[in-house]
Amino acid sequence: MNQQAAITSAAQRAIAALFPSDRISADLPDRIAYSRDLWPRTLIGLREGQHRPFEPDTVVWPVSLDELRALIEVSIEHRFALIPFGGGSGVCGGAVAQNGGVIVDLKRLDQITQLCDVNLLADVQAGIIGQTLEDQLNVRGLTLGHFPSSIRCSTLGGWLATRSAGQCSSRYGKIEDMVDSVGFIDGTARYRRVDRANNRQQLEAIIGSEGVFGFITDATMRLAHLPQTRMFLAYRVPSVERGCEALRRILQAGLRPAVLRLYDELDTLLSSPAGDRSPSALSRATHALTHGGAGKALQNRLLSTALRKAGNLSRIGANLADRLRRGCLMIVGVEGDRALAEAEAAYCHEQIICCEGDRLDDEIGISWFENRYGVSFKMSPLFMANAFVDTMEVAAPWHKLMRVYRDVHQALSADALVLAHFSHAYTDGCSIYFTFVSRGSDRTGAQALYDRLWQSALAAADTAGAAVSHHHGIGLAKAEFMKAEHGHGMTTLRALKTVFDPHGIMNPGKLGL
Amino acid sequence: MRSADATINKHKRELELCTYCPKLCRHSCPVSNATGRETHTPQAKMQLLNHLQQGSVEWTRETARPLFACLECKNCTTYCDHGNDVAGALAAGKAAASERGLQPIEYTQAVRDYRLRETRLRNALQRTAAASEMATRGRIAYLPGCDNIEFFPETISDAFSIFRRLDLRFVRMPSGITCGGHPLWAAGAWSAAHVETERLLEHLSGFSTLVMGCAPCTDLWRRRLEEHGISHQLDVIHTSEFFFTHLERLKPRSVRRAALFHDSCSLGRGLGVYDPPRRVASRCVEHLGEFFHHRDRSPCCGADPALDAAMPEVRAKQRTERLGEASRYGIDTVVTTCARCRRSLSRSAAGDQRNTVDLVDLTNLLAEALHTENR
Amino acid sequence: MSPETDLSTEVAAIVGATHLSSLESDRAEFSGLDPALVVWPKDGAEIAAILRLANRRRIHIAVRGGGTGSPCWRRPSSPVLGLSTRRMINIVELDSTSGTVIVQAGIRWSKLCDALEQHGLWTGLPRDAFGEATIGGLLADPPANAHSPSFGPLSELCVSTTVACADGSLLRSRTAPRRAVGPDVGRMLLGDRANVAILTELVLRTRQRPALIVPALQLFPTLRDALTAARAILQIGVRPTMLRVANQAQAAREIGPQNFSIPAVVGLELAGPQKMIDRALDKIDEIAAQHSGQTLPADLAADWYERTCSEYALDGHSTRLSHREALAAIGRFTDAGRRVWLDQFDAHRVNLWTESDEPTVDAVAMRGSRDDHWLAAIKAALDPHQVLLGAQSIE
Predict the structure, then answer these.
(1) Are residue B83 and residue B149 in the same domain, yes or no?
(2) Is the residue at B365 inside a domain?
(3) Which domains does chain C have, with CATH numbers?
(4) Residues A158, A246 contacting (CB under 8 angstroms)
(5) Are residues B276 and B294 in the same domain?
């Protein structure tokens, strides 16, 4: 993977002429920091000493569109790759220099340039970090309504490039629903503004393009007023089937509660705030396994033993959940105008009760909200304990959803502990978010197991009729599944590539292009 | 004395936790937010230190440099569910680099400046009006701090005017001390800092209490010296805490309509002192407001002389955003408890917006409130 | 054998001899084009075969749906085949669990709505909104009134597509509510006006027909008040299925003569569970009152609703504006005798309609225009032989 010296010295000089010395670097620490994103496969390698998996030749930090355009022109002339980089929070290897090239970090373009509280529209540069954007909007009584768990480390540009989804997507939509227009520089250095009203087709082509066509430099985003009120309700439903039924009824009645989350039995066992009160040792073990805060010493000890046979653990976990008859946890969050939100909550309540739901303490929902970004803190302890964890989010219509759930679960369970939740529901279908934990014997073993798990899980999802990604994107990780996903549509994608990036300089290898 | 490498080892688990972390605190780092550099995120700096410590990356001037891209503001720790002490680990990293002679030039300069400024500071201190009233006896030492001496001498006279109101004639400034030594520690010059601290301790013999006007030094003397194996028996409090304990006797009256309170990193996240200064300030203004991010989420002012010299964009960004927020609320007074913050936020950098916000130290505000009451 | 005969033989081999015509009356449906032949394929596979034939023979294809639009075709020098979707009117599959329905592109809107109603489903847009237009035509070239504040633009109705690409391949995109698998190719081809592909089959998302659909009318002293109130209603989170704002002249037409003055009006339709509607109506009343508005009687609202739903015609000129731009623009239409109305609301933008001969609101700064350069480049890449004429000429 470490193909070096992709860039000639003439090219290096040409790039260096464009940027002041503090905004261009080939220093070793920079080449380390930019050699991966958050693709867990590279974390497995990192643990074994591979700390520069995809080493770039150079990193630059442009501050203007002119600099970007000039860089693209140099790139065309000298034929080297440009890799757009936002927060590097992607989990699919979408922002790495697969075969060297120049990483173009857009985080210096991080301003809200215009904000209109009549239209509730904001012009925002692409490099702004999500939480920073949300904070700056909150100060003015506004919100974007986009809350991915990566919000503290991902950027607006990254969200748009990967079709990101946030935890309140059922009210505010995914990022593609929030964008009014984007500013875009393609691989020929041409800048254009692409708006929804006049250029919807082109907007569809650019959103989700993961940098293979060019740079999203800025966007006009649709905002909302900060909600007057926010309420959470929690339920226990007997099964994922009944839970999904409730979700579907709520959405198809035309309601849009901000948060709808349904955890499967095992995820419930591990995620429920009540989980750690269970008397079972295994429950405590599995709880510790995913809750970094609880019993850290215990966690390491248990991980090393429990994960030796991950498949068994998964079965035991499922049996335990069954024995305890805990059912599935469901969290509903409504927000906005108080009267409207209360009416919405009341309707949701009726529907969930109809699906055999039992109301639990509201505290469970509130606790979820307060710790909503906390789940990712559980990653490090797992990797430190020689295990690995990854997540896979697929989407399917309601009538295929249970098959997708069963088949993917089965494909993963043989070699991993599998949890799942349903957190982005629509009138016509839903996404399923699988978390799987496993461990290999060493790096090669772990990466091979990791690859095998992904292969079989994606194949199962594909066969069952699910889209192979709902909001994480493709990157390098799922590139080979693009053909299965798009079929002949790949021809159209390749045509788009020739139109936007005829010289083939933009983020090569991603999206299978 | 512990070597810096030994201190890094104490942070071993934190380094590992950060290495595999998906950068969940990165939005809170003033340095990486300004430079946009992935390498400057707390996660990347900790991963780098981990590599250096393990030997998988060699110590060089180039590889050591990112360790210095830290203001030690501890904002990242606020957002870390593991509570990782990134500032502490990186401080040790800086020291380890310095022990190897790999510190950036700006940090060598900072150590040199510390020595060169001594005469200048002493002269400045002599010129303050308060100097003439200095008591010769008493067990309470008042250390205004180097930034107050050099840039805000009126704060010292204001402090003494408050002491007088309290009839505290036994408060005095110990001779031979202009600074608590924080700049040396911050520059990673730990051995020099040790020597300096021992010297200061000699000058402080006979005192029981240290009232400090400098927030970073308060944090250093109250908490961090012990981590460095230096113990002392002094009671260390910040002026704002001192005034708070005497608030009922002082009875200040509101002299300004509205003000915002800016937390110092050292006093806030460092020592958990949030309420005493607010209680004092709220007696001096009709409405004491809060920034959107306040208390343990308050952003750093960006002040660190060496870092400011190396990366001026950091302070410029922090200043623009903090003052910009105050302007948006239409509030023209910002109260701080730290001369560092005050100087950092008021001193404009090249190309920076002009400051229309009045930055006052809590000591100035309190003195103003008491003075007005007198009239 | 003449070239035309030869062509008809080949076309007949694809669609069957009875499904093509060279009659003057059939050819006339492609106004101004004078195609050599008109063909009525039964499905996407046949369309794809015809496109392959067209590529081989370097002829052009013009596509016609319900014939309700007024397409502007580029007149080529070489022969043209007229392709009509009038046989492609089947509902292929209806899944009541997902609320999705797979339909052929040639089904007419009214027929689709009727069929859905039988299954207790609806699209959220009025049955009579688009007359006899086909779903394929509506999605290939959406009219300016195809937007609901609750459901979004008409394209939101479409989950996935099957299209016959210009190169003669058939492309079926995956049906999933949302995807993050690169650009959504299937949905990207919506609005394409048969420029690079022909929509042959659509998967549409529907909803349960709501128990209750309630119209409401609010009277305002000025158009500005009405527009401001409408914006506030949306921005607070009420999602009506229809929302219109009209000035005096337009209100007179929509509501009919009354014995009191109606300077401006906001009309809405709310659908959903009763309690949700009740709360929404309370909120609307509250907001109207804040803008000097008052609620008009329910029977008047019902009359208005019936009239606007059945006369959902496009008899004006519309411009899509942000709310701020719209507020600025309405100030220019002070003549109370001229009709001005606004619809297709969302919380950020709105369509401003004026009578057809009214000077357009070009004075208002528009953020963008269509990127013809890009469309031409895509055309060149995906339809190198320029087989598809497209409903709008690309220079």
Answers:
(1) no
(2) yes
(3) 3-84 (3.30.43.10), 91-209 (3.30.465.10), 212-364 (3.40.462.40)
(4) no
(5) yes
**Both B40 and B93 in a single domain?**
yes
Which candidate in B17, B37, B353 is best for mutational testing of the A interface (most A CBs within 10 A)?
B37
Q: Select from A31, A60, A132, A153 the residue whose CB has the most chain B CBs within 10 Å, as the one to mutate to test that interface.
A: A153
The domain containing residue B137 runs over which residues? Answer: 105-244
- What are the CA-CA distances from residue A364 to residues A235, A292, A294, A333, A369 (Å)? 9, 18, 17, 11, 9
B19: in domain: yes
Q: Are residues B259 and B365 in the same domain?
A: yes
Does the beta carbon of B44 lie under 8 angstroms from any beta carbon of chain A? yes
Q: How far apart are CA A133 and CA A276, in angstroms?
A: 36
Q: How confident is the model at residue A427 (pLDDT cuts 50, 70, 90)?
A: very high
User: Is the residue at B129 inside a domain?
Assistant: yes
Residue from the list A22, A110, A376 with its beta carbon closest to the beta carbon of B22: A376
| Contact between C165 and A492 using a beta-carbon 8 Å cutoff | yes
CA pseudo-torsion sign A416, A421, A424, A430 = positive
Are A256 and C239 within 8 A, CB to CB? Answer: yes
State the average pLDDT over residues B67-72.
Answer: 97
Query: Which residue among A110, A135, A383 places its CB closest to the CB of B20?
Result: A383
- B132 and B198 inside one domain: yes
B375 occurs within a structural domain: no
Query: Which chain B residues are within 8 Å of A32, Cβ to Cβ?
Result: 39, 44, 47-48, 51, 57
Q: Mean pLDDT, to the nearest integer, of B355-361? A: 87
List A residues 401-430 in contact with B (Cβ-Cβ < 8 A). Answer: none
Quick one: tokens of C52? Answer: 């392959």
DSSP string, C62-115: EEESSS-S-------SS-EEEEE-TT---EEEEETTTTEEEEETT-BHHHHHHH
Structure tokens at B306: 């060496």
- Specify the CATH number for the domain of residue B296: 3.40.50
pTM value? Answer: 0.94
A281 touches chain C (CB under 8 A): no
pLDDT of residue B50: 98
Buried (b) or exposed (e) across B247-257, using 16+ Cβ within 10 A?
eeebebebbbe
Number of domains in chain B: 3
Question: Which member of C172, C205, C272 has the closest CB to residue A427?
Answer: C205
In chain A, residues with a C-beta closer than 8 Å to the C-beta of B22 are 38, 89, 150, 153, 376, 379
Structure token pair of residue A199: 């250029």
**Based on the domain organization, do B211 and B226 belong to the same domain?**
yes
What's the pLDDT tens digit per position in C23-41?
A: 999 999 888 888 999 999 9
Interface confidence, given as ipTM, is: 0.94
> Measured between CA atoms, how close is C178 to chain A, in angstroms?
6
Residues B135 and B235 in one domain: yes
Q: What residues of chain A, 317 to 346, have a C-beta less than 8 Å from chain C? A: 336-337, 339-340, 342-344, 346
* pLDDT tens digits, one per residue of A158-185: 999 999 999 999 999 999 999 999 999 9
Q: B41, B69, B99 — which closes off a domain?
A: B99
- pLDDT for residue B364 is more than 90: yes
Q: Mutate which of A252, A404, A458 to test chain C, going by most C C-beta atoms within 10 A?
A: A252
Q: Tell me the C-alpha distance between A472 and A323, whole Å.
A: 34
Chains A and B touch, contact meaning at least 3 pairs of CB atoms under 8 angstroms apart: yes
Residue B24 and residue A152: Cβ atoms within 8 Å? yes
Neighbours of chain C (3+ CB pairs under 8 A): A
Contact (CB<8Å) B27/A130:
yes
Do both B111 and B209 map to the same domain? yes
Under 8 Å between Cβ of A180 and A222: yes
Task: Among B51, B75, B99, identify where a domain stops.
Answer: B99
Contact in structure between C338 and C361 (CB atoms under 8 Å)? no
